[in-house]
Design brief:
The protein has a domain of 207 residues: NAD(P)-binding Rossmann-like Domain (Rossmann fold). It is built from 10 helices and 13 strands. It binds nicotinamide-adenine-dinucleotide (NAD).
């Protein structure tokens, strides 16, 4: 049993991770300001601090709780918000993240695991699927800030021997994904469809993404605790899918058409994204297990059952 902090543990991926860590017998503490996360996703067995990761209060929490491992997932995750307000994105995704890191150093935790982005860090890559060794040219400030924090982790390892692993997620989808924002086209399309509402599609629908199911991502996060790898690992399906295909797959699973309004593309968004996960397979012995058809089916079932509870 380990003593673990999950920042962003009331969010989509974080709350799913917390459930699995608790199931595995760990003691889990969550720090989340609930700016996007939800209290009802919080596992009741987790100790919860509603707090901004920029808060000086974190120092006391680290001293009190004596963590073995830290999963840093709290973040501003919307590309368009980062483009509209780069300084705010920087405050959360670099300075707030640094506050977590500095406390990890002071309290000499065993390891920090960081949820970075593979979807927004390589820019428009010529190499598809893209490997971790591909040059990083993020198009958005969100991508720049995620990359900046990766560099902090590397420096802290070299300066202070703080162990870390970086997981660069592709487009994660599944139950509990926030439907109000822009991240998570599958969650947005499915939620609108089951409510009989219209969805917005930005761009011509030929833009591609690499969709990886949340349970597979959580499995990778858990495995990352066990290994020594000071570097980046893409966590992806390795399959390139365009938005028109996504629409079709959702329609097939629902057995009915979905209503979509087509709008012009948004600033900072990429045309293609698909990541190679061979390194994660080698280092973590990790493979995505849930394919898109199955993941969409599970997400639809969860959305329908959740709708009945509302
Ligand atoms: N969802 C994806 O496709 C995807 C892809 C690549 C990387 N990631 C990364 O994975 C992590 C989790 O993403 P998610 O999809 O679960 O998003 P999410 O928005 O559901 O979760 C983020 C959580 O962080 C919390 N948070 C935000 N700002 C905070 C602050 N200043 N202080 C404390 N808590 C704060 C939010 O309330 C939320 O609960 C993020 O770091 C994100 O960048 C996600």
């Amino acid at each position: 049993m380990s003593n673990i902090l999950v920042t962003g543990g009331a969010g989509f991926i974080g709350s799913t991770l917390v459930d699995k860590l608790i199931l595995a017998g760990n003691k889990v503490v969550v720090v989340d300001d609930l700016s996007a996360g939800r209290k009802d996703y919080l596992n009741p067995l987790a100790k919860f601090y509603q707090l901004d990761i920029n808060s000086p209060e974190l120092e006391r929490i680290f001293q009190l709780e004596k963590f073995d491992f830290v999963y840093h997932l709290a973040a501003q995750i919307e590309i368009s918000k980062s483009v509209a307000n780069p300084l705010q994105d920087n405050q959360i995704n670099v300075i707030g993240a640094w506050n977590i890191l500095e406390n990890c150093r002071r309290q000499q935790i065993k390891k920090i695991i960081f949820s970075s982005t593979g979807g927004a860090i390589y820019g428009e890559a010529d190499e598809i699927p893209t490997k971790e060794s591909y040059p990083t040219y993020p198009l958005s400030f969100y991508g720049i800030h995620k990359l900046t924090f990766e560099k902090y982790l590397n420096s802290y390892y070299h300066l202070y021997h703080l162990d870390y692993t970086i997981l660069r997620f592709a487009n994660v989808y599944g139950p509990r994904q926030f439907k109000g924002g822009e991240a998570g086209v599958i969650a947005i399309f499915i939620d609108n469809a089951v409510r009989g509402r219209e969805s917005k599609q930005y761009g011509d629908g030929q833009q591609t993404r690499d969709f990886v199911y949340v349970d597979d991502v959580v499995q990778a996060l858990q495995s990352a605790q066990e290994i020594t790898c000071h570097g980046e690992l893409n966590i992806s399906s390795g399959v390139e899918t365009n938005l028109l295909d996504i629409r079709q797959k959702i329609e097939k699973a629902l057995g009915s058409a979905i209503i979509v309004k087509e709008l012009s593309a948004r600033a900072g968004e990429q045309r293609r994204s698909c990541l190679d996960h061979q390194r994660a397979s080698d280092v973590l012995n990790w493979y995505p297990r849930v394919d898109l058809e199955e993941g969409i089916k599970r997400t639809i079932n969860w959305t329908k059952s959740h709708l009945q509870e509302e």
